[in-house]
């Protein structure tokens, strides 16, 4: 699917200043509840898991958000760490609910085998507004670096720092949506004063591996598991998915650390970013959540068998 769109804020070819960012922020409205949807579920998990607050976002009196991680209750220093992150882009719904569903339904399967750390909603402001950015018009998933401009990214890096060198698996749960072309990529071009070049949204699930550490067997194990739940995105006419060469069915690679992406914040041997397509007529919300759970489980299983 390709969509032409002219963004209504700013002057073409001129990067946004404070006035444009303020106008953009004034258009953002709360459309769902982090407290109800996410914190309510986390509350139900407290009897079974350790829940730790690792930070708080402060974006004004009515926009304060506590940030939580869910951890294995019987943490053992001799076990590998598995990190699952969701909602780095708050609008990507199954990233958040898939992470919570994994904890509710499958985390117990790994008790005594790994130390789990699940951060289901890295960007609650974006979750409530169904948006990719934070209120400063920054993309948290391009902000995982020293002196990060994104509170969300800095807080997560602080949480992970004490055990980042002990992580065996990190799976970051995302979606690619039609709104990427109708809203978010045009907004990015307008914000940066660059021409908007329409792209093609792939119909199906795919993975983004690390070009510096691709782990093709790991990625393939995830694809095979998810294919039992929802369809895998085919390559386009150029043999690409979202402009990157397909290196195996449903798999592309990015330089994670160079791009300051969430999946590059640890020294994990096995890393992957999932990309579910919730706008497909062939996929339901339940399938999207289940695909995220299947991806996490397949990734952990493969890593435990090949470490």
From TrEMBL:
PROSITE patterns: PEPTIDASE_M14 (PS52035). Keywords: Hydrolase, Metal-binding, Zinc. InterPro entries: AstE_AspA_cat, Peptidase_M14. Pfam families: AstE_AspA_cat. It comes from the Bacteria. Residues 30-307 form the Peptidase M14 domain. SUPFAM superfamilies: Zn-dependent exopeptidases. Its cofactor is Zn(2+). The keyword Ribonucleoprotein does not apply. Belongs to the peptidase M14 family. This is M14 family metallocarboxypeptidase.
């Amino acid at each position: 699917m390709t969509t032409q769109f002219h963004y209504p804020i700013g002057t073409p070819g001129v990067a946004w200043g404070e006035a444009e960012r303020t106008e953009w922020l004034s258009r953002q409205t709360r459309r769902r509840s982090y407290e109800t949807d996410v914190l309510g579920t986390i509350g139900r998990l407290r009897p079974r898991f350790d829940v730790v607050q690792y930070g708080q976002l402060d974006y004004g009196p009515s926009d304060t958000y506590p940030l939580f991680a869910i951890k294995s209750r019987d943490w053992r220093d001799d076990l590998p760490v598995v990190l699952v992150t969701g909602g780095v882009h708050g609008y990507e719904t199954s990233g958040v609910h898939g992470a919570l569903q994994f904890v509710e339904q499958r985390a117990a399967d790994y008790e005594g085998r790994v130390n789990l750390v699940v951060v289901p909603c890295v960007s609650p402001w974006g979750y409530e507004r169904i948006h990719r950015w934070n209120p400063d018009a920054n993309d948290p998933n391009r902000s995982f670096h020293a002196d990060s401009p994104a509170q969300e990214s800095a807080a997560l890096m602080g949480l992970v720092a004490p055990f980042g060198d002990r992580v065996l698996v990190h799976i970051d749960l995302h979606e690619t949506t039609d709104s990427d072309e109708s809203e978010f990529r045009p907004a990015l071009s307008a914000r940066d004063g660059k021409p908007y070049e329409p792209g093609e949204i792939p119909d199906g699930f795919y993975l983004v591996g690390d070009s510096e550490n691709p782990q093709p067997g790991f990625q393939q194990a995830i694809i095979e598991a998810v294919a039992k739940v929802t369809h895998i995105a085919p390559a386009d006419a150029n043999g690409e998915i979202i402009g990157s060469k397909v290196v195996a069915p449903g798999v592309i690679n990015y330089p994670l650390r160079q791009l300051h992406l969430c999946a590059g914040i640890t020294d994990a041997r096995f890393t992957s970013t999932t990309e579910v397509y919730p706008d497909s007529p062939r996929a339901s919300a339940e399938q999207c959540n289940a695909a995220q759970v299947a991806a996490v489980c397949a990734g952990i299983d493969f890593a435990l068998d090949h470490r």
